[in-house]
Specification:
The chain is an alpha/beta fold. Helices cover about 30% and strands about 15% of the residues. The protein is built from 3 helices and 5 strands; from the N terminus they run αβββαβαβ. About 10% of the residues are buried.
Length: about 130
Amino acid sequence: MQLRRQTPSPRLISLVSMIDVLLIMLVFFMVTSTYLNLDMIPVTRSASEGAAPDQTAGPTPIMIRLGADGLPYIHGKSLTYDALSTKLAALLTDTPVMILPSLHADTQSLVTLMDVATTAGVRTLRIVQVAAP
């Protein structure tokens, strides 16, 4: 009687763990990456830089500063949200609005200000952030 050893079957390489690692890496890089919005501050050219002098510029944007107290300021004067809503509704809807939030303003005040502006009929709304020194 002759004993014969069984030949071991070739081991299968499982790709499941490699796929898991790649998905974890994908999620990590998606969460930690920074998205840069280059349209945050509009850039205009002056006539000396090559812009046509007869070209009419759009309406002047309204700058609303959101203070640390959560109140909106226009031209240095504090407004209530009701007064701001009536002021924005009286303007043309094509007038862009730029919001400059304070570094100490909370997010809820910013969301409330954006809601008031869109309810008043503002179509173009931009948030401008000044970098801290």
